[in-house]
Task: inverse folding
């Protein structure tokens, strides 16, 4: 176990798109990161028993974290993005944590892995702690702090109305309409 | 320099409820991912984006204020969310380029 008190910085930053695809046969959702210039919405193709259709693209980025003290690099290619909890499900564990931590001026964000892999192999807790440390090291923590939690705490993904911090509809100068549920 | 100083000197219009704080540098971008990757704590964030996703992004990287340029109208749900998180949303009728010039003239640059 490293004794280093890590001081993180972003490295290997790569801009691209998070692509959301839905199988119109079984309704399964899958997501992946693409560095295509402009992934085409509505693109349909068959893969085994699935009939995938691109439902949404979100401009996003991926990155790794590097410790400036010991040069350790932690890869975050399994991180799809961060979601802001809107408190939509009163009994959701994220909402319970949100209320508890906001009283201490600590803001909760939910880390999503890529689907469907993340449902069985979520981002491990030690990496969520690294993300939490990183974003707190970037801020004035005397004012407020950040805590990153796993999306596995969401009570029912199909009902979650949280907002991804992704660039969706940002090419329009008008505010986009409410985002359709993805799950 | 503080957010209060900027409001007075440049005539920015405060839209949300927030506590004034020190300003350190300026970051200009209309992409949330760019802000998450590059903005620094205390930066002023200049953008024409107004939808409410700017609030959690601003909160995540701890900017001192978000300035909506070009007089763009900001939806009330964005303002309400910003007030909840003590995020300063300020509005300016100036285009981003003109506002950057004024901020530079006041001694602010990239942090």
Result:
């Amino acid at each position: 176990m490293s004794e280093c008190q890590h001081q993180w910085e972003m490295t290997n930053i790569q801009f691209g798109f998070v692509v959301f695809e839905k199988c119109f046969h079984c309704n399964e959702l899958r997501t992946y990161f693409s560095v295509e210039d402009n992934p085409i919405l509505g693109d349909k193709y068959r893969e085994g028993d699935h009939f995938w259709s691109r439902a949404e693209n979100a401009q996003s980025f991926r990155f790794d974290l590097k410790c400036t003290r010991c040069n350790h690099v932690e890869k975050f290619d399994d991180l799809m993005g961060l979601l802001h909890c809107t408190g939509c499900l009163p009994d959701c564990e994220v909402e319970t944590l949100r209320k508890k931590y906001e009283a201490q001026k600590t803001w909760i964000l939910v880390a999503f892995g890529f689907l469907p892999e993340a449902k069985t192999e979520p981002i491990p807790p030690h990496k969520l702690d690294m993300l939490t440390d990183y974003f707190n090291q970037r801020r004035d923590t005397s004012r407020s702090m950040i805590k990153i939690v796993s999306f596995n705490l969401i009570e029912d993904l199909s009902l979650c109305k949280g907002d991804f911090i992704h660039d969706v509809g940002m090419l329009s100068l008008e505010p986009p309409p409410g985002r359709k549920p993805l799950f | 320099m503080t957010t209060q100083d900027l409001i007075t000197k440049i005539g920015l219009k405060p839209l949300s409820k927030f506590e004034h704080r020190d300003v350190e540098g300026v970051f200009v971008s209309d992409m949330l991912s760019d802000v998450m990757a590059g903005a620094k704590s205390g930066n002023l964030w200049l953008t024409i984006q107004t939808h409410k996703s700017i609030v959690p992004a601003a909160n995540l990287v701890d900017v001192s204020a978000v300035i909506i340029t070009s007089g763009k109208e900001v939806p009330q749900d964005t303002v309400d969310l910003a007030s909840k998180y003590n995020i300063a949303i300020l509005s300016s009728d100036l285009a981003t380029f003109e506002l950057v010039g004024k901020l530079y003239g006041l001694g602010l640059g990239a942090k």
In short: The domain at 3-105 of chain B is CATH 3.40.1390.20 (Udp-n-acetylmuramoylalanyl-d-glutamate--2,6- Diaminopimelate Ligase; Chain: A, domain 1). Chain B has one domain: 3-105. The mean pLDDT of chain B is 95.
